[in-house]
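Chapter review: from sequence to fold.
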Amino acid sequence: MRTRMAKAALIVLSLALLAAPAAHAQSGGVTTITVWGGWGTFRDTLVKIIEKFHEAHPDIRVETQEVAGDMDGLITRILGGSAPDIYMVRAENMPAFMHQGLVLDLTPYFERDINLDDYLPAWGSMVYQGRFYGVPAEGGGYREDGMFVNRTIFNQAGIQPPGMDVHEALTFQEWAELAKRLTIDRDGDGTPEQWGTHFRTTRWYFFLPSNGVSVFTEGHTDTQIDTPEAIEVLEILQRIHHFDRTSAPDSYWFENRGNVAMNILWRPRVAVAHETIGDKFDWSVAPMPAGKAGSVGLTKMNPFAINPNTEHPEAAWKFLLFTLGEEAQRINALEGRATVLRSVALNPEFVFYDGPPYSLMGFLGGDAVDVVQQFEPPGVTRPAAINNVLRQLWNGQIPATTAAQQMAEAWRAALRAQR
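The token string follows.
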């Protein structure tokens, strides 16, 4: 079986010879490279980084391209010879890009110019068979998700708000009990006016590492979804979401009505919360709930990669190296974006605040597992049965053990078909 992206690659292969090659200018000692900065508001940050790069490297001109964040479309451009020199790849798609040879092997550049000890270990989605194929550019950071805490609700209930450091993380059981205690239906109409918690069921796998497991083993030779540790996580999430009904509907953002006590959200939400909450209530960020392995996060960074067909690999690498440097990383931090350079990421200037959220250590401390272990490997399409089983799980139609067994059977069949 092939991934949708792999199929797209095969379809467009016959068009490769017909497409016009990407233009690369080099005149007057100035080399021009093109970069696709991906999607969303990151492009505004990228422009600021490029301006600083031009000051430091007047011999290299960086031009941005407006391209939608569509991976199939990017593959088409790469195979057709019209892709930019540098492009951002979604972290979950990067293994397929590496497997298909759609990104340049950067290992020699890493060995020459990079000291990995200077960075948070957020490289997992960029490494294939021990080789490096990208650098962290944009995303959720070293630990993408955290628990946003409405401290006003806790204080009104006379309960100490969850701590902000990893060693203070609530256990799964404490999280569930607090969610139940802080869910209040004041008028008895069956719809709470205040919710204890919220988590997105589409991000259920973010809780697995804290219990010592992932969806797949390292190397993707098997699934761990039917282990006792994974089943325990599914049981807790199902209880919170369906049976205890203490998780707010998806339409209830943390800051929306100020009536959710604990909300599992990704780090980029911090900047939005600053703007939308204002002084409506006091809030902070705590680490993900802790299981048998403690509080363990998922690291997810979309990487910048270099086109394997670029005419200017050294110039492209200089730009990527600049994005990892102090100046560019500070721009990211000032914009409220995740950084990976330790000297910036752990700088108290960007970690601690006089007001909400007070501390970002919930996103920076403790262990993390790369998100790629939660997604199917290259060549394996997610079985249709998985989404159907999860739907039944969240609706309370099947127990967690049954859901885990059915998902394990589907994933193992898909892995066998790949071999």
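Two observations follow directly from the output. The chain has two domains: 26-142+299-354, 147-297+374-418. The longest helix spans residues 400-418.
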